Amino acid sequence: RAHYNLGWSLPNHDPAALTALETALRLRSNYLEAHFNLANRLLHLARPAEALFHFDESLRLKPGRPDIVHNRAQALAALGRIEEAIEQFELVFRLSPTEALGHVSLANILAAQKRVPEALEHYAMALRLEPDGLEANFNLGTVLLHQGRPADALPHFETAVRVDPKTRSALLNLGVACLQLNRLPDAIRHFERVLELTPTDNRARNSLGLALVAAGRRPDAAAQFLECLRLNPNDAFAREQLQQLQAPAPAPAPAPSPR
To answer: Can you state the angle between helices 134-146 and 168-180, rounded to 10 degrees?
Structure first.
């Protein structure tokens, strides 16, 4: 058990963790938790084929354990075996009908496959089971935002930020949704909050610049784009926006000559 404890305690990316878990399995080939932990680490390291072997061994030792079935489905999806993964998730739903995680994981996979209506259905199922789920709310909001539905996305980002006020990605997307809805003071406030948390986030700073332009605060916007370029001189978006702000206003059209 000492080898297992060592492997379990080390970070996912540490090669010594794999070595310790593999040693534990050489000493005891039917060690369920060693198989499962090793499989999870291999999946985290983008080695799904090897992970799948150990998930299968785990299920041989403990058939029908929901968390093993769930993670095996993730490995199948990583291998591009999407329909098999869906079948495994459906088994998870039967084994744990009140568990939201499986619906979120399947929705994420379906969204990545551009199967948006199915993804939305599973996000909705997850939120019926766990209305304040951070990942479900954020990911559903993101899908809706990409679908051009900022008003529908907004409450999900608001929930995500309420659950974790320091979730920078949710704050950023909340600001984007507000900007698209022309709720400029709210957009500016959310982008500024992201920058309080991460001052080097150029995506948030560029977005703040756009919101300030829309609010008519052109000098403030220019300052944000200049700061983006200071942080990253290769930021083409900031450079383009700054050039537009600094371009001279077009001359007024001459008055028509009297006939």
So the answer is: 30
* pTM metric for this prediction: 0.88
DSSP designation for 11: -
Q: Which of 3-17, 59-73, 224-238, 240-254 has the lowest mean pLDDT?
A: 3-17
Could you give the CA distance from residue 117 to residue 152 in angstroms, rounded to a whole number? 15
Question: Which amino acid, residue 30?
Answer: N
3-class state of residue 89 by DSSP: helix
How far is it, in rounded angstroms, from Cα 212 to Cα 208? Answer: 6
If 0-12 CB within 10 Å is exposed, 13-18 middle and 19+ buried, where does residue 30 land?
Answer: exposed
Which pairs count as long-range contacts for 26-31, CB under 8 Å and 24+ apart, including other chains? 27/3, 30/61, 31/4
Q: Under 8 Å CB-to-CB from 17, ≥6 apart: which residues?
A: 6, 7, 8, 10, 11, 41
